[in-house]
């Protein structure tokens, strides 16, 4: 194969949206299924179970969107503040910044002469980009965008939350708890495997860790429902 035609697809380019998507879908599935299982285990009827689940879907999707937006916005604000400071330092003390970049490359294994040459060339091409990437650890490749993260989280939360609601609406009322729990565990294992695959990690490991925590959450809410539950009627 010609070197000119060689191309690589790196999973790190997906981090910005993949984290929000996996987190949203996982939270939607686990939280809504746990809510449905808990309410059903308390002896409530199908209408009450579905209302509780739907309320959990709406509240959860909005909460995920707001949380992701605020979280990523705070991260972006901090990054922009660091970049502004670095821009000022490059303007006021360029030689000191060049020395700093040289030391960074020396710490990574380059000898002093080569490190200096690399620092000079990168500074000449894009000083701020070099310092942002190598000194601050800020890269456009792994930077998430607040609105993108919020929308992806809300949408994937809703998709995940719909699954236990559909199951609860279709199965016999007396079987809501076991069937929703079993279906959710299967869906979680698939979701964990897909998320791990999209990120380049081991599929089995991703499926097991997601399924374990989902099972723990549903067991806890089911126990609460059985202990404190009363029939709503």
Describe the structure.
One of its GO terms (biological process) is intracellular manganese ion homeostasis. It is a multi-pass membrane protein. InterPro entries: Ccc1_fam. GO terms for molecular function: manganese ion transmembrane transporter activity. The chain crosses the membrane at residues 21-43, 49-70, 149-170, 176-198, 210-232. Helix 1 (15-41) runs antiparallel to helix 2, helix 3 (94-107) packs across helix 4 (112-134) and helix 5 (146-170) packs antiparallel against helix 6. The longest helix has 47 residues, at 46-92. This protein has a domain at 15-84 and 146-227. The protein has helices at 15-41, 46-92, 94-107, 112-134, 146-170, 176-198, 203-228. The radius of gyration is 25 Å and the shape is elongated. By secondary structure, the protein is mainly α.
Question: First CA to last CA: what distance?
Answer: 71 Å
Average pLDDT value? 82
In the predicted model, the low-confidence regions spanning at least 5 consecutive residues are: 1-13
H/E element sequence: HHHHHHH
Helix content: over 70%
Compute the CA-based radius of gyration: 25 Å
Question: How many strands appear in the DSSP assignment?
Answer: 0
Largest sheet: none
Strand content: under 5%
Helix/sheet category: mainly alpha
Q: Tell me, what's the shape?
A: elongated
Work out the helix count.
7
Transmembrane segments: 21-43, 49-70, 149-170, 176-198, 210-232
Main location: membrane
Protein name: VIT1/CCC1 family predicted Fe2+/Mn2+ transporter
GO biological process, one term: intracellular manganese ion homeostasis
